[in-house]
């Protein structure tokens, strides 16, 4: 058996707000998806991101409770250069999203930053420090 990742699923309490954030990040999400209870979007590398509303999850898991006390998942999006990390972080903050960790040079050789999506998930932005 070969294990493969089928998709990354996110649970959202506000589908329109979640999709607006991920569109601002650069994810190509189908137009008009805001009213859907489940949405899929395929990234250029073939990874599928999927969003479900809390209500959809509770339709088959009635005891589902939204996690609290911090982010529930961290997604890390690669950028080509440190400048792109800084620009993406600044653009998302200017659009009203919460910057959690401002861009910094990590000791493992990457420019790194963290911004929160509308559900409080940690969205990391990174690029190698040495620009090729």
Characterize this entry briefly.
Helices cover 23% and strands 33% of the residues. It is α/β, with parallel strands linked by helices.
Strand-helix topology:
Blueprint: E1 8-12, H1 15-25, E2 38-42, E3 48-53, H2 54-60, E4 74-78, H3 82-94, E5 98-106, E6 110-116, E7 122-128
Parallel strand pairs: 1-3, 4-7
Antiparallel strand pairs: 2-3, 5-6, 6-7
Overview of the molecule:
Helices cover 23% and strands 33% of the residues. The chain contains 3 helices and 7 strands. The chain folds into 2 domains: 8-60, 2,3-Dihydroxybiphenyl 1,2-Dioxygenase, domain 1, CATH 3.10.180.10; 74-128, 2,3-Dihydroxybiphenyl 1,2-Dioxygenase, domain 1. The relative contact order is 0.19. It is of the alpha/beta class and 132 residues long. The protein has helices at 15-25, 54-60, 82-94, and strands spanning 8-12, 38-42, 48-53, 74-78, 98-106, 110-116, 122-128.
Which short descriptors sum up this protein?
132 residues, alpha/beta, 2,3-Dihydroxybiphenyl 1,2-Dioxygenase, domain 1, four-stranded mixed beta sheet, three-stranded mixed beta sheet, 3 helices
CATH superfamily of the largest domain: 2,3-Dihydroxybiphenyl 1,2-Dioxygenase, domain 1
CATH class bucket of the largest domain: Alpha Beta
Helical content stands at 10-25%
Shape: globular
What's the order of the H and E elements? EHEEHEHEEE
How many distinct beta strands? Answer: 7
């Amino acid at each position: 058996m070969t294990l493969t990742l089928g998709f990354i699923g996110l649970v959202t309490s506000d589908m329109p707000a979640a999709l607006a954030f991920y569109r601002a990040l650069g994810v190509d999400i189908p137009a008009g998806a805001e009213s859907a209870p489940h949405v899929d979007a395929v990234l250029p590398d073939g990874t599928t991101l999927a969003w479900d509303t809390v209500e959809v999850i509770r339709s088959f898991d009635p005891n589902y409770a939204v996690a609290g006390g911090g982010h529930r998942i961290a997604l890390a999006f690669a950028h080509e250069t440190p400048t792109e990390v800084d620009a993406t972080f600044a653009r998302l903050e200017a659009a009203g999203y919460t910057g959690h960790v401002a861009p910094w040079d990590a000791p493992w050789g990457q420019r790194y930053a963290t911004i929160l999506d509308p559900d409080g998930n940690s969205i990391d932005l990174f690029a190698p420090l040495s620009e090729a």
